[in-house]
Amino acid sequence: MPGEITYKEILRQPDIFKSVLAKARDIKSKFDSLVEKVRADEIFVTGCGSSYYLAQVIASLFNHFLRIPTRAIPSSELFLYPDDYFTNSGTMVVGVSRSGDTTETVKALEMAKNKGLPTVALTCYEDSTIAKKADYAFISEEAKEESVVMTGSFSSMLLIAYLMVADDSNIIKLPELAKAYVEKFEDIARRIIQDNSIKTFVYLGSGPYYGLANESMLKAKEMSISNSEGYHTLEFRHGPKSIVDNNMLVTAFISDTATDYELKLLKEIKGYGAVTCAIGIDLTDEHADYPIAISKELDQWARLPLCIMLSQFIAYYNAVKKGINCDRPQHLDQVVKL
Ligand code: F1P
Question: Could you tell me if the CB of 157 is within 6 A of ligand 1?
Answer without folding.
Answer: no
